[in-house]
Amino acid sequence: MRAAGFTPSRYHADPVIGENRPFADEANGVHFYDNLAVGKTASMPSVLVEAGVIVNRQEEKRMLDPQVRARIARAVAQGVAACLR
Fold first, then answer.
1. How far is CA 63 from the centre of its chain?
2. pLDDT of 13-68, one tens digit each?
3. Do 69 and 60 form a contact (C-beta atoms < 8 A)?
4. 12: exposed, middle or buried (Cβ count in 10 Å: 0-12, 13-18, 19+)
5. Helices (runs of H) and strands (runs of E) counted in the chain
6. Residues in contact with 34: Cβ distance below 8 Å, sequence separation at least 6, in sequence order
């Protein structure tokens, strides 16, 4: 995502109830979130990519742009492909 020009959000590190997640990789905006319901019952490793925080009005507007969503999709696909090589 960073190679595609995106910058990580610190939203999940905010010291508010329900957030304040520790970083696994602060430079890249990766947080530990071990009790996430979608991953709890998974029988294999998983990755959840959050590319926009809708409570941030500017990000919400940005996510309405099809070109931005396409850039995000390409960046995620390239990252997954690189991990599988």
1. 13
2. 778 787 888 888 988 888 887 777 777 777 877 778 888 877 778 888 999 999 99
3. no
4. buried
5. 3, 2
6. none
